[in-house]
Amino acid sequence: MTQVVEIESRGGRAGTTLLEVDHVVMNYTTKEGDVSAVEDVTFDLKNGESLGLVGESGCGKTSMALSLLRLLPDNGEIRQGRILLDGEDLVELSEEAMRQRRWRDVSMVFQGAMNSWNPVYTVGDQIREALRLHWPTTLTYTEETERIAALFEMVGLNSAMIERYPHEFSGGMRQRAVIAMALSCNPKLIIADEPTTALDVIVQDQILKELKEVQAELGMSIIYISHDIAVIAEVTDRIGVMYAGKLVELGDTLEVFHRPRHPYAYLLLGSTPSITGPRRKLSPLEGEPPNLLDPPKGCRFHPRCPFASDRCKSEEPPMTDIGGGHEVACFHWEEVPEIRELSK
Amino acid sequence: MINSSKRHWLRLVAILAALAVIAAACGGGDSTDTTEGSSETTEGSTETTDGGDTTETTEGGDTDGGDAAGSFETYALGMTSDITTTNYWNYIGPEGTVYNQYVLADTKTSLFGIEYPAIQVVPAAAVGLPAEPVEGDGGWTITQEMRDDMVWSDGTPITANDVAFTYRAVSEAALGGDWLSSYPYTEESNPQLTSVEAVDDTTVVFTFSDRPGLGVWPHNVGVATIMPAHVWEPVLEDALTQEDPAGAMYGADASIDVSAGSTMFDSWEEGAFARNVANDNYSDSGLVHKQFDDGTVQIGDEMFYGDGGGEVVVEFTEGPYLTEQTFSIYADQSAAMLALVNGEIDYWINPLGVSPGLREQGLNADNLSVAVNPTNGMRYLAFNMRKSPGQYKGYRQAVALMIDKEFLTQNVLQGVAFPMYLMVPEGNQKFYDAELAAELEATYKGVSEADRITQAVEALKADGFTWETEPSVDEEGVITYGVGLIDPDGNAVTEQEILAPPASYDPLRATASLWIEGWMENLGIPARANPTDFNTIVAKIWPGVGEEIGFDTYILGWSLGNPALPTFHEAFWHSRNLAEVNDGNNSTGFANDEFDAAADAVLAAQTEEEALEAILTAERILADELPYVVLFDTPITEFYSNDLSYPFTQTLSGLQFNVGFPGTVAK
Amino acid sequence: MWKFIAKRVGQMIVLFYIFLALLFVLLDLQPGDISQQFVGNPDIPPEAKQLMIDQLGLDEPKHIQLFNHLKNYSTFNMGASWSQYPRDVSDILFSALPRTIYLFLTATILAYILGFWTGKIVAWKRNTATEKAVMGTSIFLWTVFYPWFAILMLWFFAAYLDWFPVGKFVTLNFESRPDLVNSISDVLFRTSGSEAASGWTSSAAPGANDVFMLLFTSLIVGTIAFFGIRWIVKRQVKDPTTQARLFTGGTVLVFGGFVLYWITNEYGPWAFDIFWHSVIPVMTLTLVSYAGTTLLTRTSMIETLKEDYILTARAKGVPDVTIRDRHSARNAMLPVTTSLVLALATVIGGGIITEQIFSWPGIGQTYLAALSSEDIPLTMGALALIGILALIAHLVADILYAYLDPRIRVQG
Amino acid sequence: MADLLTKPEGDAPEGEAIIATPLWRIRLRLFRRSFARNWKIFAQNKMGLAGLAIIVLFGLMAIAHPIFMATIWDGHEEGGKNVYDPRAGADAVIVEKTVVPDGEITDPTTQIGQTEAALQGTGLVIPEVGTVMTAPLANPAPPVISGVPHPHWLGTDPFGGDILSQLLFGARAAFALGFTAAISSVLIATAVGTVAAYYGGVIDTLLMRLVDLMILIPALPLLIVISGFWDLDLIKLGIVIGVTSGLGGTAIILKSQALSVKVRPFIDAARVAGGSDFRIVLQHITPNVLPLSFLYMMFGVTAAIFIEASLSFLGLLAIDQSWGIMINIAHTQGYTLQGLQVWWLMIPAGASVTLFSAGFFMVARAMDEVVNPRLRAR
Q1: Which of A212-216, B80-84, B243-247, C406-410 has the lowest mean pLDDT?
Q2: Which residue on chain A is closest to C329 by alpha carbon?
Q3: Fewest C-beta in 10 Å: which of A240, B346, C205, C221?
Q4: Is the pLDDT of residue B98 over 60?
Q5: Residues A202-250: pLDDT tens digits?
Q6: How far is A74 from chain D (nearest CA, A)?
Q7: Chain A CB within 8 Å of residue B3 CB
Q8: For chain A, what is the largest distance between any 2 Cα atoms, rounded to a whole number of angstroms?
Q9: Does C326 contact chain D (CB < 8 Å)?
Q10: Distances (CA, A) of C299 to B184, B240, C303, C339
Q11: Nearby residues of C305 by Cβ (< 8 Å), 6 or more positions away
């Protein structure tokens, strides 16, 4: 009985590798041609670790996240690469086997909590559905209720709300309930896709704290996805910066946040205000992300890059370790100025 | 936890058990009911058998078994419209529809009937031919002897008292519809039927305020329905105490009614069927009717209208041979025809006959026979004689001259209609003026377009019409059509609207209107055929008393009444019946003293010869004055099962006019 | 929810009176005096006319007349029919009503269930041959000229294949039915040799409306039992598997009970005969209104499938069929329910034509017959009744919607 | 957009040129551009293109009628009327058979004589059993391509009227009715929708209750009674259908669209600039509602044709000739259950009504995807 209420992570020992993303290429087929939404992305994630993926809208963050769960729409396809979860390649799994992995091993907190609840069922019923599908044993109704109550308690919701419908929840409550649902099957990994967008700043902060506490307590891995690097800088161990479907920089949060080496990361940070981070002058990121139907040759960032050289136009810069596990895909990483220099 | 869920379980089981008990109780109750119900039904049917229907039917069947015609169970008829009442008072009153007639007409009798196909008045409940009116103190009286051997279906004799009662009911409850003409009790009637008294069981005396013509006696009062006094007396007494006695009579429960005809009404399922059963007490069962070459009609041993010279052309013995007569209702003609072809029904009784498209189906069916008969009606073009140009005789004649009826019926209407020249249909030979018809045909039939135009121009010119461009025919026969007719007052003739029912209502008249439009235009008359909803046409022609009647011309049709004495001339063209005066049927505004006299003479005629003479006079005036241009009519085509044997099939307006011969049909 | 329903009922009542007023205007706009519209039948004696004028208050000033009109119609005092004088209009209409309700209800429910099911599947399988075929058929059925289609159906199934009867809704003599139909009837009701074998003219035959009334009563009892069982099970049993089993059991129990009741019922053979006659009209009416529901469900499903909660469900590892049925379809049902109205117009309009073409003597046929015989009181009465039927159907759709959508059911 | 921004600011002549361009030309240009964009989306929808093709086909049919009448059908006169006249034309030559009761097919020329002989035999003088009058068979002729004086490519109706001519004429009637109904419907719906949205309050409530009522009352029965009581021709009917349907659901949809337009900033701007209510509704709100109006106009055509054909079928309309009347005549003359034997009576007209409705319906659905991107295929 106690087992049912126990909320935990079924991930392995902290520090061992949980997820390996290995040269993943993902394309959408459209009438106009192929859209390369995720291009040759490689990273890994350890048990208990939290990783942030940042970038502008349309840079492939969400496509990456969906690829991890293989939740792609009909026209989306993983063309290459491996996604190893505990050493098992998710790309190779049958659809049915994959379906069973979802939520049980990897759950997700979606953006826009308002719409991620089905309006016609109670929140309790929707969490119950996940339990029925993925809990290793068959639970009785009362056991389910008890577990949901425990989950609610953990995320700071009143267990009387279980039998309520989504429209009876406020925005923040709904997002808490989403987290409760994400935790329901003791997953190894949670993907939080813009978990706090559309919430007001105070609630945003609360929710992130909540997630951080939960992670600290349960020790699962979390991948945060956000366009706002400042927001997730607080809660992640490492940060990956994505641009136009490619991972362009990956490193420790503090390292990337304070000393971004890729010009895009540099400019992105420069364009984002931060309450908690170092004060700096805001500079706009000019231009728009490229059309992924026909991405630029060479480095995909070169049309917008102030440091671009002729080499960037013809040759794709590889991810290079510049020390301390800080990887950058840029030929000119050394030319990128320090942020501190800017904030004079 | 497990405990609690177990508790839930127990509670559910308890509830379900309770439900089951209730269900069982209900189910038990139901099954008991059912048993009771069915036993009741059995009792019911036993009662029915005791009551006589079944038993006596069987007896009747036995009796008829020896008959050569044989007997049969069900005479299955199809109808394309439902009946609207089962109450005979109501049927003769406001609900005189042809479908009510089909079902109910045979269930009552009258003093006299019309014998078809000869179209002659013969006695039914009376003895001998209609008695002569005699002038007396309180007016003119008719003393009519009645038979003493007739009974209602419940065995009660039909007596003079029933006739007197019917008059009393009609006059005291102020019944309307055809009762008004059957028993003309109102003061407006001329002559008024002031009393009907039963001297004894077999003698009835009618008193009129004035001398009745043939149109009244026997053709209205003599053929009037007789209702059973013993059944309806209490209902009448009750009705007379109510606010609306007529409504009470019309709405009274008719299941108490009895029959004097060969069948009696049994049941009606609205929208589905009506059912009659044989009247086993039918008085005339076994009575032999004969009609001879020379026009003699023999009923039983008595001969009328001749002495039986020549061959017997029609001979039949009254039944009924059927045990039940059913009327299935089909909303769709094609469905009725299919039922006929499939043998589901024996005869499709329909006032219009079978429409052309269905005839081939009937002819191809081996199980069906066909009867084709002329009808008692006409379709016509009418002018508004209240204004120019309709007021000018020359104009009307010119239009009539332009209409090529033969071409219209044969070529345009594909021969589904036949041309007509007189108001009295050719099918009614008794009153048809063959001589006048021949004269008219000489004028109108087979005339070339050039001659038509020449004659029409002459007629118009005679009345003072002129043209912008006069229609003309040169020596080589090349026709120049006219433009811009100008009336004798010097005003250009405005566009003449021809109102006609739309193609969806009657394609024949709709098509005819378009052709007439063309012919009128050739003469320089601006014309426009306007297909107009039937009800709208009626509203324009009869807008009500005192309203202005503004139509130009219209095309409609009439179905004519009693062929044994056509009295429609007075109704359609007498100046007394002008639409603007009393909303009467004289829609054209025709007022002609000579004609009025002739029409009155028809009503007042004491002999058929007088009536014929007056009708011929009237027809001649109409043919010259042309308030109507009679156009055409269609024959009636009917199909019936080969198994049936009818007394005759050649008769004006077809089998349906004889309501399908329920009393004489055999299988 | 009750508040919502009460509000809707209130609105409906107001609308009904506006509608009645509209009818009054329609009558008044016609040429001639309005009293003539009610008592203009030339065969009605003058005394009776005056009586009707008094009863219906037709010689009062216009506004009083309107008030009387509303009052009379609310109490079903619609005057006497002309074409079936002196029967009350309401009497004629009520005797035609059960037949129409049978046709209308069966077709609507069937169309709704089938259309929803097809639309759901088609939306799920976009760009497949199935979708294309279903869409093509639906667009054809939805745009097909209904009278023409009905005639073709009648011709094909009744005249050409000869499987079903042409016209009417009862067979006078059961012996004239095809042998197969009689054998089925015999197996079900053991009718051979009994009084029932001879048909509707036999003395054992009930009135058709009695059969319809019993049918409706049993249907209502069955529906209440069905939902009652579900309600009780839902409240008392929380365990999903048991719940599902009990639901199935309850359905079988109710349905079986219903069938058993009708097999043992003495009205059984007659009901069967009516059923046999109703197959093509119901099928025709259903097909057309089915197409509308299919098209609508598909659109609605496609919209719901783009909702975020569908992605959530997929991420949750919910099997596809469950996503389709439990998540998407359940939501897609909401707009479809509101637009039951759409199907309604088709069913009512089509119903009139259906009744005419298939000789089904219901309100529609009464309406057309009244119109062609210029029976104004009956025409107006029938139109008012059609209006009431439409209102009730809308109300049912509203209640259903309120029940289906927790945002209305549970005031948050 | 980018081009406009980078235009040098001080370039006076060009600036003037821009100002001097009449507003309508700018609108036209914008319209052309948006039309081109929308056409691209529309053209991707095969159903919409098929619908358009159907409409064009019927358009050609409508145009073909007068052309045929003036060319290949010219000069086929019988008794002063053209046999191909869609309303009154009748080809008598094709009457080949008439039937006597024993089922024999006889020559039509003997028909009149027989009829008269038979007629004279009734009444006083009773005919011998066996001599009877004939029952003429109205005779829809099957398609005849050539070899007869007046070929009928699609056969004739029971009265000898040419089916093809009626069919082509019916297309004209259908367009006339469909567009009258659709235009009046959209005019009313747009007016009601924008006015209700713009003014709100009492006006909104009143109009919306009226709309509720129209939605509640099924159109067909209402139009049946209206056509039963009043004499409607094609155009009047179109307007009546337009008014009843325009006051229905379309008004609600257009109102919600107008509401979304009403809150946009340029309306406030116009109001601040002193535009009258009427002007704002007419010039600013209405144009933004028009695409949706146009969409519902397409649905309106379908509804109108259906209603007209149904009313004609029920024999409630007094119009010259239409597809509905063609079916009505086949039906009332009793050809409905004869199926494919007389296919040319039922199939061409019925299929035309169906296809015509389907054409507009398909175009409307495809346009729906243009207007409502949520429906587009992925």
Answers
A1: C406-410
A2: A120
A3: C221
A4: yes
A5: 888 888 888 888 888 888 888 988 887 777 788 888 888 888 888 888 8
A6: 9
A7: no
A8: 67
A9: no
A10: 71, 67, 6, 12
A11: C123, C124, C328
Can you give the pTM of this predicted structure? 0.83
With contacts defined as CB-CB under 8 Å, which chain A residues touch C240? 132, 141
Q: What is the mean pLDDT of residues C186-211?
A: 78
Q: Within chain A, which residues score under 50 in pLDDT? A: 1-2, 275, 341-344
Which one of D220, D336, D374 has the shortest CB-CB distance to C151?
D336
Q: By mean pLDDT, which of A227-231, B313-317, B321-325, C292-296 is the weakest?
A: A227-231
pLDDT at B59: 33
Range of the domain at C34: 2-74
Tokens at residue B374, please?
């002329």
Lowest mean pLDDT among A61-70, C189-198, C307-316: C189-198
Q: Which residue of D has its CA nearest to B406?
A: D112
* Same domain? C311 vs C368: yes
When the candidates are 2.60.120.260, 1.10.3720.10, 3.40.1370.10, 1.10.150.530, the CATH number that belongs to D49-63+164-376 is 1.10.3720.10
Chain A nearest-CA distance from D263, in A, is 22
Phi, psi of A235 (to 5 degrees): -115, -5
Q: Please report, in angstroms and rounded to a whole number, the separation of the first and last CA atoms in chain B.
A: 82
**CA distance linking residue A65 with residue A73, whole number of Å:** 13
Please answer yes or no on whether A75 and D44 come within 8 Å at the CB atom. Answer: no
Percent of chain B with pLDDT over 70: 89
Sign of CA dihedral C193, C194, C195, C197: negative
pLDDT, position D102: 40
Tokens 């005394």 belong to C47
* B535 vs B595 pLDDT, higher one: B595
Which residue in A110, A112, A167 is closest to C407 by CB distance? A167
The reply to whether B555 touches chain D by the CB within 8 Å rule is no
HSE of B265 in the Cβ direction (CA atoms, 13 Å)?
Answer: 25
The CATH number, out of the four listed (3.50.30.10, 3.90.76.10, 3.30.70.980, 3.40.50.150), of the domain defined by the range B112-247:
3.90.76.10
Cβ–Cβ below 8 Å for A73 and D44: no
**pLDDT reported for residue D139:** 64
Q: Is C51–B535 a contact, with Cβ atoms under 8 angstroms apart? A: no
Q: Which residues of chain D have pLDDT under 50?
A: 1-17, 94-135, 377-378
Interface predicted TM-score (ipTM): 0.80
Longest distance between any two alpha carbons in chain B, whole Å = 119
C358 within some domain: yes
Question: Got the DSSP string for D160-216?
Answer: S-BHHHHHHHHHHHHHHHHHHHHHHHHHHHHHHHHHHHHH-HHHHHHHHHHHHHHHH
User: In this structure, are residues B501 and B494 in contact, taking their beta carbons and an 8 Å threshold?
Assistant: no
Q: Which residue spans of chain B are classified as CATH 3.90.76.10?
A: 112-247
CATH T-level assignment (fold) for domain B6-29+377-633: Dipeptide-binding Protein; domain 3 (3.10.105)
Q: B583 to chain C: nearest residue by CA?
A: C42
The number of C-beta contacts closer than 8 angstroms across C and D is 134
